[in-house]
Backbone:
């Protein structure tokens, strides 16, 4: 075989043959390494990487329908949301035929047509010397019409189409524009939408008896961050930040407000999180209780001498978290509402409940090595599934007697000792979360899981995988806003296409009320 220095003298065909030969050897070596790894694990009595499937507890505990399996639903009648036009199709019958009326056949179609209009705007010179120019039709911004803006927003946010493919689509349809112009359509002049998504969060937090929360990774300015979801069955809101701390979560719960408030809720929070008594007395005795922004708040803490204390827990952090929670209460957010989470520490504020699906998943994914351990694991999973099904039945028809029975049954299940050390430790950990797992007994209206949040945040995960991260703060805010508005429209049973048309000013579009008003109407007791 020639040396590397001689490869440049070989013809292309021979070089390709040698590359294919080397690729074949690499593939063989890769398979050999995998086989040796498996054989080594077998000789040591170890298992390979487990393949953990979803537990299926939620679906398996759905109540049976009169003991019979429901029939599969058909497609149903197709009912377009647009007006149906009528067109008569004629045929030339042979002589002597009798007319028997019409046979209807409904067809749905989509018309995509590029349209360019040159508006000749009248110009007048007034007697005062001012120039008067005829205004453009409603909805036009820049050199693009409202229908094009609606299509771009719909495709990018709800259709998850990348900017490059969106440019290719529009150019293929005959629209002359570039990537930069599409980006301007996506993020330029969207203040009204940003304001409405803030209104949606405020209305949701003011009226919701419960919210579920979740987060996922996000990229902004080529730096790892986190996208937090807050919502329930009436609204969804997203916020991308650089941190997933409790401070960050409490700042998001202020819904755009920047103030810090020392009130009863703030002081209770500080006591619960072990802030020193003298520090609480200083904050409580000071006449100023409300601060406009972070700068004013930190200046206040420095004036009180709390910033120089080197103790645990950090008095500045706990006091700041308390003042943020006080601001949340001051604005009427989450009043007696329950926050349901997957046991991530930053979400544990206020009335807090835990997701049963995540709790059972800990038992489901526990590694077992012997038959008795597997039997103990399956037995405990069966007890948890049975208990979970009864919790669902309790939510539908809560009674005081049933509440007492379920509390006693929880004790019997999670104080059980199986002899499997890891499982017993896990049961102790779940038993320690009794108050949060059984929050549903006092609040039957809350869900038993955070599946809604996980379904909502999936669009953010897809957008991250398809389009990567954001580069500007405005682009980040617009992405969060439009994805949240699209999910909110879906929950309110409003077509996102109609919503965009109404807000952008498309002529003849369907009227859509403010989403915050609809959320408040749904949140009012019947």
Residues:
């Amino acid at each position: 075989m020639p040396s590397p220095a001689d490869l440049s003298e070989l013809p292309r065909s021979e070089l390709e043959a040698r590359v294919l030969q080397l690729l074949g050897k690499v593939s063989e070596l890769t398979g050999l390494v995998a086989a040796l790894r498996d054989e080594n694990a077998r000789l040591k009595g170890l298992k390979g990487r487990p393949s953990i499937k979803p537990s299926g507890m939620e679906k398996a505990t759905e109540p049976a329908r009169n003991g019979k399996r429901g029939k599969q639903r058909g497609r149903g009648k197709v009912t377009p949301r647009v007006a149906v036009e009528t067109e008569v199709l004629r045929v030339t019958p042979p002589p002597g035929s009798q007319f028997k009326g019409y046979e209807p056949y409904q067809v749905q179609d989509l018309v995509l047509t590029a349209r360019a209009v040159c508006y000749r705007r009248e110009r007048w010179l007034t007697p005062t010397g001012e120039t008067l120019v005829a205004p453009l039709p409603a909805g036009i911004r820049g050199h693009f019409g409202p229908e094009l803006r609606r299509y771009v927003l719909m495709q990018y946010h709800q259709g998850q189409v990348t900017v490059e493919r969106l440019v290719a689509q529009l150019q293929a349809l005959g629209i002359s524009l570039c990537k930069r112009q599409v980006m301007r359509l996506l993020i330029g002049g969207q203040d009204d939408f940003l304001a409405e998504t803030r209104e949606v969060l405020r209305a949701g937090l003011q009226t919701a008896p419960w919210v579920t929360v979740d987060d996922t990774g996000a990229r902004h300015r080529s730096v790892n961050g986190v996208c937090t979801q807050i919502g329930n069955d009436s609204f969804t809101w997203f916020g991308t930040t650089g941190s997933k701390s409790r401070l960050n979560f409490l700042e998001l719960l202020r819904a755009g407000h920047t103030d810090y408030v020392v009130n009863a809720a703030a002081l209770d929070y500080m006591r619960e999180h072990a802030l020193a008594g003298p520090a609480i007395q200083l904050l409580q005795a000071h006449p100023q209780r409300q601060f406009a922004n972070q700068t004013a708040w930190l200046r206040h803490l420095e004036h009180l001498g709390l910033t120089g204390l080197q103790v645990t827990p950090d008095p500045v952090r706990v006091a700041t978290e308390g003042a943020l929670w006080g601001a949340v209460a001051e604005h009427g957010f989450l009043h007696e509402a329950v926050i349901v989470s997957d046991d991530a520490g930053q979400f544990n504020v206020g009335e807090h409940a835990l997701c049963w699906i995540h709790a059972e998943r800990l038992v489901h994914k526990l590694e077992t090595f012997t038959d008795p351990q597997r039997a103990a694991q399956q037995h405990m999973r069966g007890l948890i599934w049975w208990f979970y099904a009864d919790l669902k039945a309790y939510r539908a028809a809560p009674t005081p007697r049933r509440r007492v029975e379920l509390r006693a049954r929880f004790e019997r299940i999670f104080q059980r000792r199986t002899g499997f050390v890891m499982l017993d430790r896990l049961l102790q950990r779940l038993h320690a979360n009794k108050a949060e797992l059984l929050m549903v007994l006092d609040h039957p209206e809350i869900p038993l899981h955070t599946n809604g949040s996980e379904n909502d945040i999936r669009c953010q995960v897809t957008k991250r995988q398809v389009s990567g991260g954001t580069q500007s703060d405005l682009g980040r805010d617009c992405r969060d806003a439009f994805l949240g508005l699209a999910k909110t429209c879906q929950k309110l049973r409003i077509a996102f296409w109609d919503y965009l048309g109404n807000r952008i000013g498309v002529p003849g579009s369907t009227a859509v009320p403010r989403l915050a008003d609809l959320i408040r109407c749904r949140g009012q007791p019947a």
